[in-house]
Amino acid sequence: MPYLLGLVLASFVITSIFMVPFIDLLFFLKRKLKRQISRKSSSQTPIHDQLMKDDEKIPSGAGALLIVILVVLSIVAAPLTNSLKILLFTLVSFGVLGFVDDFKLMLTRRKGKFFGLDRGKILIWQSVMAILIATMLYVMIGMNNLYIAYLGNFVIGYWYIPLAAFVIVSFANAYNISDGLDGLAAGLLLICLFAFLGIASISLDLSLASFIGIWIGALFAFLYFNIWPARIFLGDSGAFAFGATLAVVGLLTGKILALAIIGGMFVVIVASSLLQIMAKVINKKILPVTPIHMYFRYIGWEEPKIVVRFWLAQGLLAIFGLWIALLSR
């Protein structure tokens, strides 16, 4: 435990040192690009864009810095097991996809929560990478079962691969959609990671626990600059990478049901958007705007009020999910 706490503190200090000059660099690049590039004005989500118009002044791209720090510190400080290799591959591969989208955002106007790339292309690439990662879990770790408390252990063989891939893609997009209010997604993730740190520590998985500890320290430093009023955003590079990696953390613990509960607010947020998309097929909106946290902002709730209440709900779900996970030991 002292070693894990040391990793959290070291990661926090290192990330804090690099964060301020990185923010200054992003502000410089944003001002330079703003003078050179004219943006398109059309949008498919006008209410959403109106609510987020002030956020366009804030630079996005902290995810790239955090990914580099996580990879370097994990290689240096954590045992390089197969599980860590899969975690780092997930982090980097989804981070690269998000970085491409972040770069395209510099050249195009934001349209809803999907910025530069076409959402169909994003989903295809995510699915390809998720299937590859799920196959790595199946081959390198030998994961092929689904355990549910009180119901028992179900060996599902090759069916584990599409199930794991679906979980990875779902959480990658859930985190991305959740990253709409200052500090919301990062705070929700931090709470989830504390729960999984407990599971990894109890399971004596030093490699996974070390990675989570490093991740927690980096998130603490980022969240200081991301809470309202935010000075920097994570960007798609971090959102896709963090969501997918959270899913892999849950899969590595063997607690898929606990993952759905511990990450419950991400599930609620993405579900609200999916229901809205399905409703639009019949030309009828469920809410004026989604995801659900943007609806609360639309009806007049102050941004910090929404964020803190979502954090509280996430805290309760994390405790409940941790309880379920411990019952299934």
Task: Chart the SSEs and their pairings.
Elements (H helix, E strand, L loop, with lengths): L1 H35 L9 H6 L10 H16 L4 H24 L13 H23 L3 E4 L3 E4 L4 H19 L5 H19 L3 H21 L8 H18 L3 H7 L1 H18 L10 H7 L4 H25 L2
Antiparallel strand pairs: 1-2
Q: Describe the sheet with the most strands.
A: 2 strands, antiparallel
* N- and C-termini, Cα separation: 21 Å
Beta-strand content = under 5%
Backbone shape:
globular
| Total number of beta strands | 2
Structural class: mainly alpha
Average pLDDT for all residues: 86
Low-pLDDT stretches = 36-42, 109-116
Provide an overview of this structure:
By secondary structure, the protein is mainly alpha-helical. The chain is globular and about 50 Å long. A hairpin with a 3-residue loop joins strand 1 and strand 2 (about 150-155). It has one domain (about 1-35, about 55-115, about 170-325). It contains 13 helices and two strands; from the N terminus they run H-H-H-H-H-E-E-H-H-H-H-H-H-H-H. The protein has helices spanning about 1-35, 45-50, 60-75, 80-105, 120-140, 160-180, 185-200, 205-225, 235-250, 255-260, 265-280, 290-300, 305-325; strands spanning about 145-150, 150-155. Helix content is about 70%, strand content about 0%. Strands 1-2 form a two-stranded antiparallel sheet. The protein starts with a helix and ends with a helix.
